[in-house]
Amino acid sequence: LSDRLTSVFSSLRSKGRLSDADIDATCREIRIALLEADVALPVVKDFVAHVKERARGAEVSQALNPAQQVVKIVNDELIEILGGETRRLRLAKTPPTVIMLAGLQGAGKTTLAGKLARWLRDQNHVPLLVACDLQRPNAVQQLSVMAERAGVAVYAPEPGNGVGDPVQVARQSIDHARRQQHDVVIIDTAGRLGIDQELMAQAADIRDAVSPDEVLFVVDAMIGQDAVTTAQAFMDGVGFDGVVLTKLDGDARGGAALSVRHITGRPIMFASTGEKLEDFDAFHPDRMAGRILDMGDILTLIEQAQRTFDEAEAAKMAGKLASGDDFTLDDFLEQMMMVRRMGPIKNLLGMMPGMGQMRDQLNQVDDKDLDRVAAIIRSMTPGERSEPKIINGSRRARIARGSGVSVTEVNNLVTRFFEAQKMMKRMSQGIGIPGMPGGKR
Ligand code: GDP
Ligand code: MG
Q1: Distance 125 CA to ligand 1 centre (A)
Q2: Where, by residue number, does GTP bind (predicted)?
C-alpha cells in the first residue's frame, strides 16, 4: 500500500515546473532590489539572466510558493557567487608571508592593516606592519597608532629623513621581518582620491619589489557603483588576489560586493564593520546575500518553511493523503503544530502552498487558539482521535469538560477537522487543491 501512496505523492510533486510568468514577475522585483543595492547594471543583467535559466529548470517546491522559490534560487546563487571560492589567507611556505594592501585613499587600508594584524596575532602569528604610505604627512603616524593598539610591531622610515621611497621601505621591511622572526608582513600603501596612473605605478613597483603572497584590494562598500571602475582599474594596474569590503557598518546595501566579485572574479575575503580593531571578520556570503536582497525576513521565513516542511514530514503527510479516512485528529494536530513551530502564524500563512488545505482554518486561528485546539484534541481518547466519527454529543460534552472549553468550541473543531479531511480526500483523488503546487489552479 505504502508504495502506491509514495507514487501518488511523487506524481503530485513532479507535475509542475515554475512557470515563466512566475519567474519573470519575481525576477523583475529582484532586478529592482539589486539595482537599489547598487549592483552595477551589467552585473544585474548577467545575474538575473543566469537565475532565470536556473529557475526554468527547477521543479516546483513542496514547501514554497513560486515567488519564494525564485527568491530562494536568487539567494542561493548570490551566496554561491559571493562565496564560491572563499578561501583562507595563503601563507608562504617559507615565512614571511607578505600581504600587500591596495585601494583608494580613505578606503580603509590603514585601519584594515591594524585589524588584520590583530586578527593574525590572535592566531599566534607575529605580524609586522609596514608603512609604505609616505604620501600623506600623518600616514606613518596613523599606522604606528594602529600597530600599538593591535599590539604588533611596525616598520617605517625614520621620521625627519625626508620623504622616503616606499619601494625601498617595502624591500627593506622583508629583510627586517626575517631578522626579527616576523612570519607575516602587512604592507600598507598610499591611495589617491581617484584612480591615478602614478599611484598605480607605485603600487605595481612595490608589488614587484616584494612579490606578495596576497594582494588585497580594499574597497569601501559605500562607494556603490564606482566600485566597479575602481576594482577594474586596480585589477589592470596592480592585480589582486582577494577583496576586503569596508564600512559595512554603514547603510550601504553592499551591491559593491557582487559587482566586484563578478567583474574581477576575485573572492571577498574579509569584511570591515567599524573603526575599532575588533570590527572585523571573515566575509560571510550568506549575510551579504541577505543584505543585498534586503529581504532578510522573507529569507528567514523561507528557511524556516523549508526546514519545517522537510522531506520526511512531507512524505509522512503524503501517506495520509492517500485516503481521507486515514487522516486523523492526531494528524490534524500535528499539522497545526508543524505550522506552530514555524513562528507566528500570521506571517506564515502566505508561505504554505503545501498546506493550502489548511490555510482557511489557520486563518481563523492564532497561537492562543492553537493551544486550545491542542488541549481539546488531547482530551480525546486515542479511539476518538483516530476515528473522529464516533465523537457524539455526550463525548463532546466530556471533551469540553476535560479541556475546559465550551461544547461549541469542540463542535467547531470537529467541523473544521471534517472539512480538512474532506479536502484531503479530494486531493488524494487527484482533483487537486487550489494553491497546491501540482494541483489545478
Ligand atoms: P586608507 O586611506 O585606505 O588608509 O583609509 P583609513 O584606514 O585611513 O580609513 C579612512 C577612514 O575610514 C578613517 O576615518 C577610518 O576610521 C574609517 N574606517 C575605516 N574602516 C572603517 C569601517 O569599516 N567602518 C567605518 N565606519 N569606518 C571605517
Ligand atoms: Mg592609509
Answers
A1: 24
A2: 103-110, 188-192, 246-249
